Amino acid sequence: MAAEIWKERDVAGAFLSERSLLIPDRPRQLEVMLRVLRRAPRQPGRALDLGAGNAILLRWLLGLFPQASGVALDFSPLMLEQARAELAPHGARASVVEADLASPAWREKVQGPFDVVISGFAIHHLPHSRKQALYREIHDLLHEGGVFLNAEHVSSRTPWGEELFNDAMSEHLCQRRREKGENVKVAEVRKEYLERPDRAANILASVEEQCDWLREIGFKEVDCFWKYFELAIFGGIR
After folding, report:
1. Pairing label, strands 231-237, 220-228
2. Of the candidates 32, 34, 57, the residue with the CA atom closest to the CA atom of residue 47
3. How far apart are the C-alpha atoms of 172 and 124, rounded to whole Å?
4. Residue 1 exposure: Cα atoms within 13 Å on the Cβ side
5. How far apart are CA 19 and CA 13, in angstroms?
6. How far, in whole angstroms, is CA 15 from its chain's centroid?
7. What is the spatial distance between Cα 186 and Cα 45, in angstroms, rounded to a whole number?
8. pTM for this structure?
9. Is the pLDDT reported for residue 77 higher than 50?
10. Lowest mean pLDDT among 13-17, 171-175, 214-218
């Protein structure tokens, strides 16, 4: 399975040290997620971070909601190591679980229900049928009034839109690398971005299609709350 590449330490390490820190408009994404969480019927008491990586989203949530506790779930050994280290200051408020979202068996590793389920740039590695099944599993794990938010890489509607995104990402990554003192050109960065080894693990679906899946499952207030070409935040409330 293509997503298995994330178990490779060099691939996971490159994401943790580079691209995860270079996602465009990250502060605005977190602001949007916070606004949704604050207006949700249930305030974050217990949270689940799926495909957590180094638990950046869960750490952010625990820092903003002192009453909250949470679980970070991932299957990459390196990301699990980093999540444990990053969450250590939160003590008993946070735990880390190893499980693979590609199988429904992941649910056996967590004890629901949850007030919040969040995910950041992880679910797009799953086949579409598995995405839909996972969204049902998330729905079942939420309290009534609980919120699901997915910050995700989604597909463009047309090849033209995909090229717009590739241009935007290449220029953004190039600028950030120049800020660090690297003498790089956009064409060089674009080539590296398009040829990165984990790109083959992407199985993208449009945000419109995924919002329809959520509505069909029974989520309410489903919407795309933020979008920048192929980057989107969407979700709903049980």
Report:
1. antiparallel
2. 57
3. 22
4. 13
5. 10
6. 13
7. 44
8. 0.89
9. yes
10. 13-17
Q: What are 2's two structure tokens?
A: 């293509």
Please name which of 227, 62, 216, 41 lies closest in space to residue 132, comparing C-alpha atoms.
216
CA–CA separation, 128 and 83 (whole Å): 27
Q: Which residue has the higher pLDDT, 201 or 195?
A: 195
Q: Which domains does the chain have, with CATH numbers?
A: 2-17+44-155+204-237 (3.40.50.150), 157-199 (no CATH)
CA-to-CA separations, 47 to 114, 161, 166, 222, 227, in angstroms, rounded = 6, 34, 33, 19, 24
Cα distance between residue 74 and residue 8, in whole Å:
13
Contact 106, 124 (CB under 8 A): no
10 Å CB burial of residue 225 (0-12, 13-18, 19+) is middle
Q: Are 42 and 65 in contact (CB under 8 A)?
A: no
